[in-house]
Each structure stands twice: as structure tokens, then as C-alpha cells.
């Protein structure tokens, strides 16, 4: 189990504790309280990420509360509002952070979906025969799921790279000599 969850934990830490996050956490200036625009932006991104994840987990697992409450639910019914909310969240973001915020939203979805796909390995492949008796093999559309998650990772990576702040031109960094 450790081998399955270790990469996901490492990617999560890398996303949460990157340079932009550490600059925000260590700034000496007192941050302003978020306004209505930033709260609406955050809400759009959070709901978009949740709708993306619910749509893809509905395709993958075909079980859960959402499928129980809405048995006729199609994943496209959730993906369209998720895309609209993602674009609305990008439009509501501040000018310098639009690409970064959109990329982080898609990357959070991608990391969560990768975790779901890794956990489905035990019930979606022939590994199910090593599980206890109540577990049965479930057919999972691996090609569709890995392709969609891969495209989301690619788009998120491009957005994160385009939203990256420019490098400072200055003297090269030197490491101190502790010996």
C-alpha cells in the first residue's frame, strides 16, 4: 500500500509547498482579507474540481451517493458545468494569476483522479483474485480514464508553466561552505 500512496503524497506536497506557496506563507506584509471576487473565484474553482472528479469517478466506479441519488446521471451532465465553472473561475481571477489558478485546479483534479485510478487497480484488474471473497472484478474504462487524466495533466502543466513568474536576472546562487 505504501508504494501506491507514496507518489500521490509526494506530488501533493510538491504542489502545496512550492515556491509561490512558500513566498505567500513567508511574506512579511499582512495579507488583505479576500473580497467577494476572490471568494467567488475560489468557489468556482472548488465546485469545478469537485464536478470533474464526480464525473470521472462516476465513469470509473459507477457507485456512490451521487449515482444512488441520480441514477440516470451521465458524466457529460457534470463535465459541461465543470468546464463552465473553470472558465468562470479563470475570468474572476486576478490578471496575473489566471493561468496559475486554472492550472492548480486541474492539477488537483488530476492528482485526485490518479489516486482513484491507483486504488481501482485492485478491483479493476486480475489482482481481485487476491482480495477477500466479497470483492468482485469491476470493468473500468482504463483507456478513457487514463487519456482524460493525461490530457488534464498536460493542460494543467501548460497553464502552470505559462503562469509561472519570470526568473530574476541576477548573480548565480552559490552554496555556502560549511566546512
Structure characterization notes:
With 179 residues, the chain is mainly α. The protein has a domain at 37-129 and 138-162. The chain has helices at 2-16, 19-25, 36-61, 65-69, 75-92, 98-119, 121-124, 142-162. Helix 1 (2-16) packs antiparallel against helix 6, helix 3 packs parallel to helix 6 (98-119) and helix 5 runs antiparallel to helix 6 (98-119). The chain is flat, with a radius of gyration of 20 Å. It starts with a helix and ends in a 17-residue tail after the last helix.
Largest sheet: none
Question: H/E element string?
Answer: HHHHHHHH
Segments where pLDDT lies below 50 for 5+ residues?
A: none
- The assigned structural class equals mainly alpha
Oligomer: single chain
- The amount of helix comes to 55-70%
Instruction: Give the averaged pLDDT, no decimals.
Output: 80
* Spatial gap, N to C terminus: 41 Å
Number of helices: 8
Q: What is the CA-atom radius of gyration, in angstroms?
A: 20 Å
Any idea what the shape is? flat
- Count every beta strand, where a strand is a DSSP E run of 2 or more residues: 0
Percent strand:
under 5%
Transmembrane segments: 6-26, 38-56, 76-94, 106-128, 140-160
Keywords: Membrane, Transmembrane, Transmembrane helix
Q: What topology does this entry show?
A:
Blueprint lengths: L1 H15 L2 H7 L10 H26 L3 H5 L5 H18 L5 H22 L1 H4 L17 H21 L17
Helix pairs in contact: 1-6, 3-5, 3-6, 5-6, 6-8
